[in-house]
Input
Amino acid sequence: TQLLEQSPQFLSIQEGENLTVYCNSSSVFSSLQWYRQEPGEGPVLLVTVVTGGEVKKLKRLTFQFGDARKDSSLHITAAQPGDTGLYLCAGEGENTGNQFYFGTGTSLTVIP
Amino acid sequence: DAGVIQSPRHEVTEMGQEVTLRCKPISGHDYLFWYRQTMMRGLELLIYFNNNVPIDDSGMPEDRFSAKMPNASFSTLKIQPSEPRDSAVYFCASSLLLGLHTGELFFGEGSRLTVL
Output
């Protein structure tokens, strides 16, 4: 098992604030994905990053893959109540086949 | 298009009973994953299949758990006998291999298992 630690574990902010969620590991990943999960549903993919140092933007969300492909961050600008949910990072093992290991998750609540 | 379909959505059973969870992956996907989610341990990979063949079952907790994929459109996860500590939400996900990388994981809505 390749451990992916996310921080913070819980985050409660006011609408309009910015936030950053971190995903860290001592392992190298061939790719990394971010998912969002809402209560009673399965996780849904937000983005996939493959190249070290890669930055991807999805509207108000900015994702970055670390240069060494061991860590990643998710930055949300001007958070909205609709951003509320559980954010999960998932790393594809470099030498462990095509399987994804999920991080511990960050539960975000955006208060109107 | 239909997504990943899991059944049952909810299962409440008594300790010692057999539990069977079912999954129909998205047609054409060649990977199928079974995950378990709890508050304490998050989302854990139990087992995954490639083209119906089990590739890695190192995440299966113990011999009480077994999984099969008899064909490309159906998989089962069985717990026998069940124990209270097996209570969790069990997710099935399917994906395609895109080049060298596993593509997007498409998750079902999960099966919430409660063992009394």
The mean pLDDT of chain B is 93.
